[in-house]
Amino acid sequence: xxxxxxxxxNQKIIQSYAQGRFxxxxxxxxxxxxxxxxxxxxxxxxxxxxxxxxxxxIKGRCDVLLIGTxxxxxxxxxxxxxxxxxxxxxxxxxxxxxACRTFNxxxxxxxxxxxxxxxx
Length: 120
Prior knowledge:
By secondary structure, the chain is an alpha/beta fold. The chain has a single domain (14-117), classed as 3-Layer(aba) Sandwich (Hypothetical Protein Mth938, Chain: A), CATH 3.40.1230.10. The protein is 18% helix and 29% strand. The chain has helices spanning 78-86, 96-108; strands at residues 14-18, 21-24, 27-30, 33-36, 39-42, 64-68, 91-94, 113-117. Strand 1 (14-18) and strand 2 form a beta hairpin.
C-alpha cells in the first residue's frame, strides 16, 4: 500500500538541514528561513524572538507557527507567548530538527503551518 502523502505541485517540503543550510523542495538556502506551504523567505533577523513584528508577513497565513531555535530548544516566557497569541499566532518552539520534521508532518496532513528556522 502506498502511503506517500499527496502534495500540491507548489507545496514546500523541507528535505534536509545541516551546516547552516536548508534544502527545501530542491532549492538550497543559506542561513535562517521562514517556510510555509507555498513560499520560502530569508529570515533576516531571527533574534530576538520577542520581536513579533518580524512575523507580520505571515500573519493570517497559518494555524501554527513553529520556531526552530537551532541545536537546542528555547522557551518562550509567558508574556512572550501571550504577545504571540494576541497577534493571532499559536506558536511552538523546538530545536530546528524537530521543527523541520513537524513542519513536514503537518504539511502532509494539509495543515496551514509556517516554520521559522534558525540554522543548525
